[in-house]
Amino acid sequence: MELLIGQMFAGLSLGSVLLLAALGLSLTFGQMGVINMAHGEFMMAGAYTAFVVQRSISDAGVSLLVSIPLGFLVGGLLGLVLEAVLLRRMYHRPLDTLLVTFGVAIILQQAARDIFGAPSVDVRAPAWLQGNIELLGAPIPLTRLFILLLSLLCLAGLVLVLKATPLGRRIRAAVLNRDLAETSGISTRRTDQLTFFIGSGLAGVAGVAVTLIGSTGPYLGTNYIVDAFLVVVAGGVGQIKGAVIAAFALGVLQSVFEFSTTASIGKVLILVLIVGFLQLRPQGIFSLKTRSLT
Amino acid sequence: MSTFLQSRWGVLTGFAVGAVLLLVLAPTGLSVFNLALLGKFICFAIVAVGIGLAWGRGGMLTLGQGVFFGLGAYIMAMHLKLADAFLFGGSGVPDFMSLYGSGEVPGWWEPFRSPVVTLIAVVLVPGLVALVLGLAVFKRRVKGAYFAILSQALAAAFAVFLIGQQATTGGSNGLSGFRSFFGFDLKDPSNKLMLYSIAAVVLLLAVGTSRQLMNSRFGELLIAVRDQEERVRFLGYDPATIKTVAYVIAAVMAGIAGALFVPIVGIISPADVGVIPSIAFLIGVAIGGRATLLGPVLGALSVAIAQASLSSTFPSFWVYFQGLLFVLVIGFMPGGLASLPGLVSRLRRHRAEQHPTEQRKTEPAPPRPILAPESAPPATATEVPEEASR
Amino acid sequence: MTTPTLLPDGDPQAGGLRHGRPKYLEVRDLTVAFDGFVAVDKVNLSVTQGDLRFLIGPNGAGKTTIIDAITGLVPATGSVNHTGTEILGRKVHKIARLGVGRTFQTASVFENLSVLQNLDIAAGTRRKAKELLRRRKGMDPAVQEALEIIGLDKAADKQAGTLAHGQKQWLEIGMLLVQNSDVLLLDEPIAGMSQDERDETGQLLRRIAASRITLVIEHDMDFVREFATSVTVLAAGKVLSEGSVAQVQADKKVQDVYLGTAGMEGH
After folding, report:
1. Which of A107, A121, C66, C160 is the most buried (most CB within 10 A)?
2. B53 with B44: CB under 8 angstroms?
3. What pTM, to 2 d.p., does this model score?
């Protein structure tokens, strides 16, 4: 029983990383129809940011607190550049953006490899995050609790931005109906850039977070990108609520499947589950209600 | 049509030249080692033919061809392992199983002792998996990016599954060390030549099949589905069936390619079938021209040759180069090299229009429709949508 | 060789064929609601073979939604009966196979295929798999005839994407003909056309309508007056009036609705 609770919690923290990764994907896919395969590499960049910061700030606690906003900035700026240089020309070709950004992804991976070397590096967790707390008799690592809280905080921040700021209204308008938003005088250009910045920044934060539970290598992003996309598909494109449910469901299911079978069969089971789920709801948990045919 | 690669004579000439090159010139001109290397590239080219059909003509961005390639490959590899164990080991148990596993052959390996079952399964298993997946996905109108992501997840799950089954699939080491192929010694150069020739003939057959499909009514229908899936529905066709057929054919081609890859290359491992190799299959197709017949083949061969010659000497340079290829070709030349002649002539025409040397009579422009769709609430979608991806 | 005759003898007339057992399309209590908004409200409508019915009404009256519902694009309740067969609730492609064809406001032909290929695909729903896997040889007689009827016989090998707007609409009508639809549902076929193209389209409709069940959505009242054999007026999702052009124009309710909006004449 304790083991199951521990496993469930591991699932929640995996889910919170997936959520951070998927929020940005979901926004950019929903708003611009861009499928950004390099999103995982923005995570990787965030993780290396944490590593670099810790080399100059030896106090693990301070460096973590510095790394989080810095990781956001690094991820966000990478996203901004990608959007400005490549993707803005390709909004009407979603499938092609997938392949173009895949090219960007392998370039970034190789760059990380050439800069930081192929072996993984480790980021020390601060002392106040070492150890466990007890939950119903099960030991819960503090790092995982921290990641969960961090992702919920980011989620709250994002929801606040979307609901309460003019930028958020513009984003929501563009997700619902891009053409209409444009004809209503919304500068989709600026909105796109900001969306990309925020979405990619969240990936950077996710990268900083995963340094607490594992080591950092050039291919860190590839471990998360496919699952993050599955979250977007299952949750419904452009749907924050759907992404939250799907991310945590996927994380917990994965942990539980791994616990009861093996990691490898767990992955296959999850995929079968998602294909099965799409039979019932081809548009994901939530879908945009528009009048278009698709 | 517009380019040589697409014209009837272009295709026929290319076909004949290809046959002579592959079956006469290459075996006489290349060393045994290089011939085997070319054989490997040919396997990739066979996959590319299928991708050209599914993606170029059918608009299905399949990021999971590695799965079908892997199914064919692992089925063949299991058979070779069992046959070797029977021929050389006596016990009938493949070597690695005694090392990592219980030393017993699992039940699901048993059917592949039979050569006939193996050959049938190489075609049937990838085909059936694609059929089930295709129907499940396309019937529910899951398409565009959704399909691409699902197919990619399939590749990821497949690789993870293989790695996890150390005792029965060799885990991340994969299966290797094959000594015989249906009784032929794999070390013998003449048998290597035979394997190569089989691969070359299969490639030519795959191109022939693809050509027949592209030129048939089915091929026209496939383009119609790619461009306006919903419109096809209103003519009384079920687009899901049409797409599934093309998807299954692409999967079967990948499966056969995988089965040939195993004896030619001598190893199959999860690294050959996961997410990355599955996407890598696409770049050659994109470079050559995804919607053309020969573009995918030539593109896949060129990329494989370039990779073989560059990646060993400049491994990191090759990765950057490959990344750049994706960015430049897909981003700026989506039609691939096959679209170059068209681009050039369009450019020339453009120039000519800017500097008119002679007064040309121009047709009056067609009346531009000024459509006023109903904007009040109940107006539903009256346009048949573009390829649905959002 | 038997040549198919896509063209019937004679002209369409109000009420359709008077002899034999004409085919019909009967819509009963058709209701379409979007998120609680009732776009089509218990519409009753019946069209008989040989009638050239026009469906008119102000913007937002639910005209296109009715066609969408009949062809299975949007879910609806009620009943749509095509000569004894209930078609409501079936899948889009099954409805099409039952002989119900439609066009779209924005002409939607396969732009990357030739005119001939477009028609050949439309004519081919009943082809066997073996036929599909073979190359197209020669020309289906029905396709040949349709090309002549829609006046595109000289443009057979042209890419459909290069056609003029009017020609695309005619190609769509041609596709309906070879598709062998008994029910033609045309959504604003003359929108954006020049006067000459409008006249030609009107003549074309007149020529093909005598043997078919034809329902045309149209805004242009001159066009309606010239070519309709009967008219149904729709407003706010309900049938307001039905009859000949003169009858509906004299209808007080119709006048009220149109005076409240754009005006029946000048649309």
Report:
1. C66
2. no
3. 0.87
